[in-house]
Write a structure and sequence with these properties.
The structure holds two protein chains of two kinds. By secondary structure, chain A is an alpha+beta fold. In chain A, 46% of the residues lie in helices and 15% in strands. In chain A, the strands form two sheets. Chain A has an eight-stranded antiparallel sheet with strand order 2-3-4-5-1-8-10-9. In chain A, strands 6-7 form a two-stranded antiparallel ribbon. In chain A, strand 6 and strand 7 (160-161) form a beta hairpin. Chain B is mainly alpha-helical. Chain B has helices at 31-36, 47-65, 78-84, 92-95, 97-108, 119-143, 147-174, 180-188, and strands at 14-20, 23-29. In chain B, helix 2 runs antiparallel to helix 3 (78-84), helix 2 (47-65) packs antiparallel against helix 5 and helix 6 packs antiparallel against helix 7 (147-174). The chains are: A alpha+beta, B mainly alpha. The interface between A and B is large, with 61 and 53 residues.
């Protein structure tokens, strides 16, 4: 697959459309599956890993999971391209760093991606723009059923789908909703949200999943329990909390607009000004500034700018994307200069 | 990296970068200290805590007695699972069943899967169901002394039993076995 294609566009899930898209970036459903006649990854020698990868790859390509499925064998990709796939949320950091036979299948639009030989043999993810968990689950479910026609999954009638780590056993399902919550951070109400969420056994994570920081005021809410509940119940559990958080964030934004409008507008315009004119900018700084700009677009403070442009900047201004776009490997310092130039040019076009 | 809280000696697992007025602040805390500060990233349990508690106790006891039992599927011991948090093969769930079930219950607050079932498995389940129904009918037929019907039922039952056996052998043949390399290691010591 020409990874260069990925640079021309961003995934469909970044369109900035879909329900509640002012606050909900994306809805994701991940399923963990293992194939019965193989060891789990940690106990696999190179030849078994290769055989497992091949078996799954063949099945993925045979059932034509989504139109124009592309398959990347990660052993044959450059480190920079693997970083790019992480920035795109198509593979995990763990999958990026591996040294054994492993792969990624991705459909056009990036709504569906399958990691092969990650922690589990199969990590299937469906991803859609905005708040739409049901269609996202339907897609994951449908692809899972197609895959299973040619693969015997490791399954126990008591414990369900058997996974390398017992935290995923049962449904193997992780439902995550990515939220943009700048106003709750500004009004210092975000901690209350975390506390409420952890009380009902849901987890809060940063932008790139487990163990990552919440840069740019992006947070992922996801289920922890995978056993003893049906897929429907797991979805319903997450659905119970998301509308409330969305309404809190919306209310916090309205409050800021009512009580502190000048300061809020100032924050948005300053962020926009910095992005538009800065000459050197780090990725953390650009994330925070873009976060303010994104909120400004939704509140009508920046009428000329559309969400797609802002979402594109979030992805394309990250290190691997920047380096691929300019076709050079750069030191962090150089990257910060290049990033500022790139953002300036994009905002001038918009 | 250790937790930056001066009174704490745990590993830092929550890393937070905050930018206030353009100045970058980094925080490295353990999950407990992060939780006290109300920061995200703290699950209601940590897998290592649970592993150390549940599986650790069992693993320790067995190693004192002598050789720790290994999973016949992959050669992993409970102690190895405890340190990595990952199983070696699907069979580990059967090999360490008594130690794993309490662990699974602690994580999920449940011990029975109620979600999706692969089609292959649902076929086995429906065959078992069919078998039970046929056996019941056979009993009734014999009671009625309808031997012709009973003979036909017996044939049907045999067919279903064969189907179940076939699907079971297929599954057993596919179960992974421990690698020879790990067996050699055991023999050399």
């Amino acid at each position: 697959m020409a990874l260069q294609d990925l640079l021309q566009d961003t995934g469909e899930w970044l369109r900035g459309t879909g329900p509640e898209s002012d606050i909900v970036i994306s809805s994701r459903v991940r399923l963990a599956r293992n194939v019965q006649n193989f060891h789990f990854i940690t106990k696999m020698e190179a030849d078994e890993r290769a055989a497992c990868e091949e078996k799954i790859r063949k099945q993925i390509l045979a059932v034509a999971i989504v139109p124009e499925t592309r398959y990347v064998e990660l052993l044959q990709t450059e480190p920079l391209d693997r970083k790019l796939l992480v920035e795109r949320h198509l593979i995990s950091k763990e999958h990026e760093d591996g040294r054994h036979a492993r792969g990624l299948a991705v459909g056009v639009g990036e709504n569906l991606a399958i990691m092969v030989n990650e922690e589990d043999h199969i990590r299937l993810q469906a991803l859609q723009s905005g708040y739409q968990l049901r269609p996202t689950w339907a897609l994951a479910d449908q692809v899972d059923t197609k895959l299973e026609q040619g693969l015997d999954y490791a399954f126990s009638s008591q414990l369900g789908y058997l996974t390398a780590c017992p935290t995923n056993v049962g449904t193997g399902m992780r439902v995550s909703v990515m939220l943009h919550l700048p106003a709750l951070v500004l009004t210092r109400h975000i901690e209350k949200v975390f506390q409420a969420v952890s009380k009902i056994n849901l987890a809060v994570r940063g932008l790139y999943g487990e163990g990552t920081e919440a840069s740019g005021h992006f947070y992922q809410i996801s289920n922890q329990v995978t056993l003893g509940k049906t897929e429907e119940e797991i979805l319903a559990n997450v659905e119970n909390v998301i509308p409330t958080i969305v309404s809190y964030e919306r209310r916090a934004r309205e409050d800021l607009m009512k009580k502190d409008r000048a300061r809020l507008e100032d924050r948005v315009w300053k962020a926009y000004g910095l992005l538009k004119y800065a000459r050197v900018i780090t990725s953390e700084e650009s994330m925070m500034l873009l976060s303010s700009v994104r909120m400004g677009v939704h509140l009508g403070i920046l009428p000329g700018l559309n969400l797609r442009t802002v979402n594109d900047l979030f992805i394309h201004s990250q290190p691997a994307h920047l380096q691929r776009l300019s076709e050079t490997v750069m030191e962090p310092n150089e990257r910060d200069i290049r990033r500022a130039t790139f953002i300036r040019s994009k905002l001038a076009e918009a | 990296m250790k937790c930056q809280n001066p009174n704490c000696k745990r590993e830092a697992t929550v890393h937070l970068t905050e930018i206030k007025s353009g100045v970058r602040h980094e925080m490295h805390l353990c999950e407990t200290c992060a939780g006290e500060k109300g920061l995200p990233g703290k699950p209601h349990f940590t897998i290592s805590e649970i592993l150390a508690g549940v599986a650790g106790q069992q693993a320790g006891q067995k190693s004192k007695k002598g050789k720790e039992p290994e999973c016949p599927g992959c050669g992993i011991t409970l102690g190895q699972f405890q340190s990595s948090g990952r199983f070696g093969c699907p069979q580990c769930y059967v090999s360490f069943r008594d130690d794993i079930l309490p662990l699974v219950e602690k994580i999920h607050d449940a011990s029975q899967h109620v979600g999706k079932v692969p089609q292959r498995v649902s076929l086995e389940v429906s065959l078992q169901k069919e078998l039970r129904l046929l056996q019941l009918e056979l009993k009734r037929t014999v009671k009625r002394e309808d031997y012709e019907k009973a003979a036909a039922l017996r044939d049907k039952i045999r067919k279903v039993e064969d189907q179940i056996k076939a699907s079971e052998t297929q599954a057993a043949e596919k179960a992974p076995r421990a690698r020879k390399t790990s067996e050699k290691k055991g023999g050399a010591s």
